[in-house]
Design brief:
It comes from Dactylosporangium maewongense. This is Condensation domain-containing protein. This protein has 460 residues and is α+β, with helices and mostly antiparallel strands. It has two domains: 182 residues, Chloramphenicol acetyltransferase-like domain (Chloramphenicol Acetyltransferase); 258 residues, 2-Layer Sandwich (Chloramphenicol Acetyltransferase). Helix content is 38%, strand content 23%. It has twelve helices and 16 strands. The strands form three sheets. Strands 9, 10, 11, 12, 13, 14, 15 and 16 form an eight-stranded mixed β-sheet that branches. Helix 7 crosses helix 12 and helix 8 crosses helix 9. It is globular. It starts with 14 loop residues before the first strand and ends with a helix. 41% of the residues are buried.
């Protein structure tokens, strides 16, 4: 989720270099399911959900080199050339251009200014400036020079361009351009995705997914009226924890279980304990659909929300992990769906059953270091006990909405960083902090138990 602050006064580029490009795959058509899902998020959150960031440029790279990189990316990735069109009834369409011109901004760091801080401000300005879905290319790129030499590059794109894993693929390919140029792309681009999704095979997939979603949505709790509070309604905070990182590492190794499943089980148990009504925990994972045919190496938005109903009340951790794993597997399987169809079923159920469509925890596991396997040896019980407890810091309060209760999970060496987003009228900040600490405490407790049992079963 982006920050919304704008540096003052606005930074002005020294020059803007026109970069002409062309590319294959031009055409106009419906949004793909992944694009439509993120578009619904954009409309709900009143944000173009910019993604990207800034980093040092390769040593010796010139402005001309970076312009060539931008031209290459515009040619290779049709999503970089995609803008929106709207039908008479307001439905969005994707329009992929076959040619055009995009600007590469060049900024010069003022004398005495810190180059990294200046670049961070450029990046923040790109994110904060409103985006025109119809007229503007969905990529903003700026080179920051120090004494006339390129030092940093900021690249910010609209989330319609790609999901996080597609962004990582793009960065790897651009980085390898001069040493190991990537071969032709083989993945289905969004226009082709939309064509398949409208085919009989695609409709069959969507209909099966819709049956799963309807079954899960029927288990949502009834609507509870929100309690208004003074000040900005939507808050964001970070919870950085070495203890949770080590505990998750230990449990995943002892049980030989996927690390996301371990985390989701901690979360499901903590949510169930906090609500105290015995209902299943509702978790809505962001699912990377790249395991599906044709989506593995495409730079596009193919991740979609799933829905997981984990009935774990009163269970041991091991049994809760099994139940959560089954529920998560179904969520991943049926996360490839038509968001418009799910929205229609949701509206019907809400009207007839009074279910709370915003119930649950949105869960986005974005880790790249420990997602598949933690680095290093399994922590000892002593190391788990000694790990520093998490620190919770509220960082942003705003009126534009987030998802009702949402978590992004990132890692750095030796710790997890959870970014929590909450609608404080539904889940007040104190309750969010309590939930974060309950997840951590449960993780440490279960890790120590698992390590003790593991040690007891080892042969001398």
């Amino acid at each position: 989720m982006p920050d919304t602050f704008l540096p003052a006064p606005p930074l002005v580029a020294t020059t803007r270099i026109p970069v002409r490009f062309d590319g294959e795959g031009a055409g106009t058509g419906p949004l793909s399911w992944g694009q439509l899902g993120i578009w619904q998020d954009m409309v709900r959150q009143r944000s173009w959900l910019p993604i990207g960031g800034w980093a040092p440029v390769a040593e010796g790279a010139t402005v001309e080199d970076l312009a060539d990189d931008l031209r290459w990316a515009m040619r290779r990735y049709p999503t970089f050339r995609t803008r929106l069109r709207f039908t008479d009834d307001g439905a969005p369409l994707q329009a992929v251009a076959g040619w055009g011109t995009i600007g590469l901004d060049v900024f010069d760091v003022p004398p005495g200014a810190d180059p990294a801080a200046f670049t961070a401000s450029v990046d923040a300005q790109y994110r904060a400036r409103p985006y025109d879905f119809v007229e503007e290319w969905p990529v903003r790129m700026g080179v920051v020079r120090v004494d006339g030499v390129p030092a940093y590059l900021s690249t910010v794109t609209c989330h319609l361009v790609t999901d996080g894993f597609g962004g990582l693929l793009m960065l790897r390919e651009v980085a390898a351009l001069r040493t190991d140029p990537p071969g032709p792309t083989s993945g289905l681009q969004p226009l082709a995705q939309a064509q398949w999704q409208a085919s009989p095979e695609g409709r069959k997939q969507s209909e099966k997914a819709l049956r799963h979603w309807e079954k899960m949505l029927r288990q949502l709790p009834p609507v509870t009226p929100p309690a208004s509070r003074p000040g900005p309604r939507f808050h964001r905070g970070t919870f950085v924890s070495a203890a949770l990182y080590r505990a998750t590492h230990a449990v995943s190794v002892v049980f030989d279980i996927d690390t996301s499943q371990v985390l989701m089980t901690f979360l499901a148990l903590a949510v169930t304990a906090q609500t105290g009504d015995g209902r299943p925990a509702i978790i809505r994972p962001m699912v990377d659909n790249r395991f599906r045919r044709g989506l593995g190496d495409v730079v596009a938005m193919v991740a979609q929300r799933g829905i997981c109903v984990a009935d774990v009340a009163g269970l041991s951790y091991e049994e809760a992990m099994r139940r959560t794993g089954i529920a998560a597997m179904l969520a991943y399987k049926w996360a490839y769906h038509d968001p418009a169809a799910v929205a229609a079923v949701s509206a019907t159920l809400s009207a007839s059953l009074d279910v709370d469509l915003d119930a649950g925890v949105w869960f986005n596991d974005r880790r790249t270091i420990s997602r598949q396997m933690f680095p290093g040896s399994v922590p000892t019980a002593e190391q788990v006990r000694d790990a520093a407890p998490g620190v919770f810091t509220w960082t942003v309060a705003q009126d534009d909405p987030y998802d009702p209760l949402s978590i992004d999970v990132d890692d750095s060496p030796g710790e997890f960083q959870f970014t929590w987003f909450t609608d404080t009228w539904r889940t007040p900040p104190a309750r969010v902090e309590a939930l974060a600490r309950a997840v951590e405490a449960l993780a440490v407790q279960e890790a120590l138990t698992a390590l003790e049992n593991f040690a007891g079963t080892e042969t001398p």
